[in-house]
């Protein structure tokens, strides 16, 4: 069933086999066995690659809750003991800075736990958690379905960032007079910033879209434009070469949330992971400062 669902979600035998770390022939053999069990053709093999029949699609979609419930049993049984075994954890690409502290704390608290990390944009991680491919994820929340539980871990101010040479000019009107570098609008950060810019009304700007916060800050440091990103990212990648302001106001901020499925085993995992994330936050002085202290105009924590 896991293989069938992976083929349904990934669109091909080859992609599913790669995701499940198995050979293509093993995946094909499993599907033939599944067809024998149900005495039904699940794939149309007249196409290349083979495609799911309508019954194959129905079985794959029905398998999702079965697989999720089955995998949740181990979490439920471990609810009275320290976490052990293996969990699959997703972290949004823009939150990857939390990974070292989180991994360190989780290993200290749960030495028998094996953590598999997957990094992707938030919208993809939400899909993966909902499908049961991930046990939990830390991301910028989008619209969530009722089967998912979310707990806010951190709220970060979003700041306008410019090259250090622009310190004396640092103000919101820079978005009217300078090229703007936008983080991928498919992400939570990108969507929030794009909506903010739209609310600014009538102004002309040349927009460059990138999917790397580090690359964006590098371009800003070279005075190739301005950007709006979470303050910790400006501090992390700026290295004294950029300045920023929180003149944007409290309406523009980025929330990081932990999400899991709403099931008995996952609820225990949710609380345990939330505690670990908060501990990781406390251990990171830069993040803690960003979460509790507003910035003054043009302040650079590294200068």
Task: List its salient traits.
single chain; 303 residues; alpha/beta; D-Maltodextrin-Binding Protein, domain 2; seven-stranded mixed beta sheet; two-stranded antiparallel sheet; disordered C terminus
Q: Total number of helical segments?
A: 12
What is the mean pLDDT? 83
The CATH topology assignment of the domain at 155-254 is: D-Maltodextrin-Binding Protein, domain 2
Describe the global form: globular
Radius of gyration: 23 Å
CATH superfamily of the domain at 155-254: Periplasmic binding protein-like II
Percent in helix: 40-55%
CATH architectural arrangement of the domain at 155-254: 3-Layer(aba) Sandwich
CATH class of the domain at 155-254: Alpha Beta
Low confidence ranges = 290-303
**Structural class of the helices, strands and pairings?**
alpha/beta
Order of helices and strands: HHHEEHEHEHEEHEHEHEHEEHH
Question: What is the makeup of the main sheet?
Answer: 7 strands, mixed
What proportion strand? 15-25%
The termini sit apart by 55 Å
Number of strands: 11
Domain HTH lysR-type: 1-53
Keywords: DNA-binding, Transcription, Transcription regulation
Protein name: LysR family transcriptional regulator
Function: NodD regulates the expression of the nodABCFE genes which encode other nodulation proteins. NodD is also a negative regulator of its own expression. Binds flavonoids as inducers.
